[in-house]
Amino acid sequence: MKLLVGTMGGKAQVFRVEGDTAINLTAALPQIGNDLQALIEHDALMAQAADVTGEAVALDDITPALPVDAPGKILCLGLNYIEHIKEGGYDIPDYPAMFLRTRQSIMAAGAPLVRPTCSDQLDYEAELMLIVGKGGRHISEADALDHVFGYTVFNDGSVRNYQRKTHQWTPGKNFDQTGAIGPYVVTPEDLPEGAKGLKIESRVGDEILQSSNTGNMIWGVAQTIAIMSEFTTLEPGDLIALGTPPGVGHAKKPAPRWLKPGEVVEIEIEGIGICASPVRDEADLAKAAE
């Protein structure tokens, strides 16, 4: 099933996507609410959602919102593609690099990706993201895929000079409105097992910035869930980002390729969709809000 959370008529609702149209699930089943959390937590409600019929609306009439409005945790992998590790000058690790993102750092697909006033080094990172369905601790790799609700697209926008100010990546990965998510969530039965073997790409216009395949990840979905659940209890609605392939802006030669205001960066994952974000300067947004 392909799902979309978005606003229509000023109200956030949940839709089932069918081609270029969508069925309003919240209108038919009000208990679903205004994001995916109820569907994640209640299998019976999810089964009902699959059978909803009704008038289809155009996708263009829906403004995307976050799939999960208030995730308990946003867990992220770094250094999960060998060629990306090499381009960054890192050694290939035997345990994944991990970091956390805050709620303020993420936003829905289509919302501005904000270049902060203190830096012009805003970089892009195409990533597969999963939404935890069934929670748990000490989840085995063999059982891990049963804990996935669905998959979406993530742009892990990174402010590189702040990322490098410290051994911990927290500042560079948590500027407000730098992590775009969505717009679509696809449930596991509609994708290859573990979302493996999907083309993943980032671009600005006709300029292809990254192009790889999720089959090139060092730690796949099942391994990542097992590793993360060793140290934290995963909960329904948690978000897990799975790292980026090579081609990021800071590693471009002969000069870095930073995102600039006025550009639109697109992240596309085969079978899931395109996460498009217009790049805006923080100062310009502040002036417009005055």
UniProtKB/TrEMBL annotation:
It comes from Tritonibacter horizontis. One of its GO terms (biological process) is carboxylic acid metabolic process. It comes from the Bacteria. The keyword Amino-acid biosynthesis does not apply. PANTHER family: FUMARYLACETOACETATE HYDROLASE DOMAIN-CONTAINING PROTEIN 2A (PTHR42796:SF4), FUMARYLACETOACETATE HYDROLASE DOMAIN-CONTAINING PROTEIN 2A-RELATED (PTHR42796). Belongs to the FAH family. The keyword Coiled coil does not apply. This is Ureidoglycolate lyase. Keywords: Lyase, Metal-binding. One of its GO terms (molecular function) is ureidoglycolate lyase activity. InterPro entries: FAH (IPR051121), Fumarylacetoacetase-like_C (IPR011234), Fumarylacetoacetase_C_sf (IPR036663).
